Amino acid sequence: MTRILYDLCGIDEGLRFSPYCWRVKYALAHKGLAYETRPWHFTDKEMLAFSGQGKVPVLVDGEETVVDSYEIFRYLDRVYPEASLLGGADAEARARFFKFYAERNLAPAIIKTVMMDLFNVVAPQDREYFRETREKAFGRTLEEVHAPSRGLSQLDQALEPMRARLEEAEFLDGQAPAAADYLVFGAFMWARTVSAADLVSNADPVYGWVERMLDLHGGLGRNAKRVVDVEGAY
Amino acid sequence: MTRILYDLCGIDEGLRFSPYCWRVKYALAHKGLAYETRPWHFTDKEMLAFSGQGKVPVLVDGEETVVDSYEIFRYLDRVYPEASLLGGADAEARARFFKFYAERNLAPAIIKTVMMDLFNVVAPQDREYFRETREKAFGRTLEEVHAPSRGLSQLDQALEPMRARLEEAEFLDGQAPAAADYLVFGAFMWARTVSAADLVSNADPVYGWVERMLDLHGGLGRNAKRVVDVEGAY
Fold first, then answer.
1. pLDDT tens digits for range B131-165
2. Which Pfam families does the record cross-reference, listed alphabetically (chains A, B) (predicted)?
3. For the segment B61-113, what is each residue's pLDDT rounded down to a tens digit?
4. Of B90, B154, B173, which is closest to A88 when you measure between CB atoms?
């Protein structure tokens, strides 16, 4: 059986920067499940037509097609219950909060910090689509969204609970990483792949966690191609 | 056996405004455990000497004395396992985040909004102590900390993940409230008891949750005395 993950790519096919796809790659690695990725561009809508929608991640697991990063976590826990990601029902209810914390607190701060870096890695054929959809969503131009010092200060504040938690534990989920860590870390991989900006200082407890997350699963994150590795791109 | 909770009070003995004590009152109600409270002032340090420290909440449960709101949650779950607050180990790891989210994201925003209201309810004999310790901690005067419009805008941002979660579920912990809800709601009771300020608009999903939390356990929060109920205080 082949397990396939459709994974957003940028100017270079090896440059994979979707925070949602990163969640899924960590989740698959956590389960020890082998998979192949298929590079996908924002405008390759017909490539995903079989999934009934037009966004990644899309996981094709034998006969099953699953979309949405959080739904993929649920699917993986159901079909491959070993090495649980979300945990029991009480833990799962709380995992939802980490999803929203990443998407509603961290991502808006990070995007201000790396907006133009992000736009720089979008593949040429996707740029018009990307600009149009994002500017419509933000109600502003990409250039207006880009405000790194404001973004970093917003991020600094948003990271406070993580900082406190990571002062007492190696991972958000305690001694070992699980769904909470992966749901949040996707946002950090997003920034790391598209930008050379330092989001946190190395004295920050969050920094140590980022380093540990990069090393997990054979250096999954650390070995990922970054824009700084693409010649002439940065 | 008498179960006693030492509970911070203000200008009126019935005005109980500590967010940490509110967490514990909700936790005790969640377990269906009867208790009495003892009003305590910030400067009544000798009253707590038996607990080995000088802050509330302090719960005396028969022979046991437990301090710190989160430790009290752990204690209650251990000794009274029915109606779990923190849940299994995986859920508990995530509960820690809600503690820090309330203390490091919500409380700093709320305090800017209600600082002078809060100072107004501090009992006369506690005022000098309160001002001195808080100003030392903030590195600013209370008057400088008080910045309601900045506080509300910071709170608006900090509430984003709660808003998203409460759009899909009645409580942070899902269909029924548990530790995550109580850990966070303490901050809302703190603001509610000392101030008439509206923290969220009634169109906000957080508003509906606050209403549900107020009604829980026989209207525990709704029936609490507020500064607006104390004649001449507001």
1. 999 999 999 999 999 999 999 999 999 999 999 99
2. GST_C_7, GST_N_3
3. 999 999 999 999 999 999 999 999 999 999 999 999 999 999 999 999 999 99
4. B90
A25 pLDDT above the threshold of 90: yes
Of B87, B108, B165, the CB nearest to A100: B165
- What ipTM did this prediction achieve? 0.97
H/E element holding A37? strand A36-40
- How many domains does the structure of chain A reveal? 2
Task: State the CATH number of the domain containing residue A202.
Answer: 1.20.1050.10
**Whether B179 and B140 share a structural domain:** yes
Comparing CB atoms, the residue among B87, B90, B95 nearest residue A178 is: B90
Query: Residue A234 domain-assigned?
Result: no
How far apart are alpha carbons A116 and A108 in whole angstroms?
Answer: 14
B174 touches chain A (CB under 8 A): yes
Indicate whether A200 belongs to any domain: yes
Q: How far apart are CA A173 and CA A179, in angstroms?
A: 8
Cα Rg, chain A, nearest whole Å:
17
Q: CA dist B61 to A210, B49, B64, Å?
A: 42, 16, 5
**Which domain covers residue A48, as residue numbers?**
3-79
